[in-house]
Amino acid sequence: MAAEFSKPTHYWGDKFDSFEGGVDPASILRTARETAHALLERGRASDDPDVIERLVTYTDEHGIDAIAELWARSSARSLPGALWRIYLLRLVIRQDREGTAFLFQRGAERLSSIDTVIAGAPSPTGPDEIIELADRILRGAFTGDFAIALDRAASFARILAAGCTSLADDADPVDAARATELTLRASRYALTADELTACARLHRADSLD
Question: What keywords would UniProt list here (predicted)?
Answer without folding.
Answer: DNA-directed RNA polymerase, Transcription
